[in-house]
Design goal:
- The chain is α/β, with parallel strands linked by helices.
- The protein folds into two domains: 206 residues, inorganic pyrophosphatase (n-terminal core) (Alpha-Beta Complex), CATH 3.90.1640.10; 123 residues, Roll (Diaminopimelate Epimerase, Chain A, domain 1).
- Strands 3-2-1-4-5-6 form a six-stranded parallel β-sheet, sandwiched between helices.
- A hairpin with a 2-residue loop joins strand 9 and strand 10.
- Helix 5 packs antiparallel against helix 6, helix 6 packs antiparallel against helix 7 and helix 6 packs across helix 8.
- It starts with a helix and ends in a 5-residue tail after the last helix.
- The structure holds manganese (II) ion (MN).
- The site of manganese (II) ion has 6 residues, from loops.
Length: 340
């Protein structure tokens, strides 16, 4: 993959002129948030930068296997330290996010900082105004893949070591659902092919990310599918709504619900799947589509959400019960003309 050489040269100069770099990703970080941020962190560290990886909120425990994961600064745990680190930064790299507001409570410090800002992302409508350089590609598998290609073009593929590749690969395999969507491009396999040559442990990475459930998490899945799953075959939609009480009953941990929405799409006739999750900070929604229905447009129109065409999310403006009712009502309104 060849990126715009002018942008690469600008980024190269910004990196060479900088000393203290902050790499930050989005709130409720997923594998791609961690993979892209930590891979870039490793690359900048190898360029002898004083680099700090930062996240607005805690990440799932099982990503602790990523190289240098223990060094990540988490804003919801150490807000003052994060603010101080941003204030000292002379370069800020934003990975896997399209809008600064996705850094939640870090957004204000980031906006106030005079440091040049670099965006590396694959979501639609990137915020360009305060950025010195923007690398944005909505067709690419993941921010991690894009970050990989940026580093490759900056310093050559030999510069990529096992630590960087472990991070980038983790982001790619999570954001593509283990290479089942958003990966219909040669570039992602080329990138992975190069990463394999650094000696990464593909088997081990998949084990660390996907085979990490507790017994109660597996039983919770059974409960979701047996008791909570609602199927609306006439509009080819299915959803699961999980209350806080349900989560307490099964002792769920951070990240335990990430992949549950995907089960809704595993039914042959279902085209749209939704997970509604009650949290102490509001009602979270995850949308998935395997048809022509753009869930990011729907999420934005009715629930202040956004994301990708086939995978998007929102924090609902309504309470738990109302969110469920509104979801069904709005989907019927949008889809009734196509109902079969
Ligand atoms: Mn991503």
């Amino acid at each position: 993959m060849l990126l715009d050489e002018t942008k690469i040269e600008t980024l190269r100069r910004l990196i060479e002129q900088s000393e203290n770099v902050v790499v930050v990703s989005h709130v409720n970080p997923d594998g791609d948030a961690l993979g892209s941020a930590m891979g870039l962190r490793a690359a900048l560290a190898r360029r002898d930068k004083n680099v700090t990886a930062m996240l607005p909120s805690v990440y799932p425990d099982y990503f602790g296997f990523l190289p240098a994961a223990e060094s990540i600064l988490v804003d919801e745990k150490e807000h003052d330290r994060c603010v101080e680190t941003i204030a000292k930064a002379d370069l800020i790299v934003l990975a896997d996010l399209n809008q600064i507001k996705r850094t939640d409570k870090l957004a204000e410090s980031i906006r106030q900082s005079a440091a040049p800002k670099v965006l590396i992302d694959h979501h639609p409508n990137p915020e360009t105004e305060p950025m010195a350089v923007v690398f944005s590609d909505t067709d690419i598998s993941s921010a991690s893949e894009l970050a990989y290609w940026v580093v490759c073009q900056l310093y050559g593929s030999d510069f990529i070591n096992k630590s960087m590749a472990t991070c980038f690969y983790s982001g790619i395999c999570t954001d593509t659902g283990s290479f089942s969507f958003s990966c219909n491009h040669r570039s992602v396999y080329e990138a992975v092919g190069n990463m394999v040559e650094t000696g990464i442990d593909i088997n081990g990475i998949h084990d660390s990310i996907f085979n990490v459930f507790s017994e109660s998490r597996v039983r919770f899945l059974g409960y979701c599918l047996t008791d909570l799953l609602k199927v609306h075959s006439d509009i080819r939609m299915a959803y699961i709504a999980v209350s806080l009480d349900d989560q307490k009953r099964f002792n769920l941990e951070e990240g335990d619900m990430e992949s549950i929405v995907n089960y809704t799409l595993s039914m042959r006739h279902i085209r749209i799947g939704v997970l509604i999750k009650e949290t102490p900070r509001g009602v979270r929604m995850s949308f998935r589509s395997k048809g022509e229905f753009d869930v990011n447009v729907f999420a934005a129109k009715y629930f202040n959400g956004g994301g990708h065409r086939r995978a998007s999310g929102a924090t609902s403006p309504y309470d738990f019960a109302t969110t469920e009712a509104k979801l069904v009502e709005h989907l019927y309104n949008e889809l009734k003309t196509n109902a079969q």
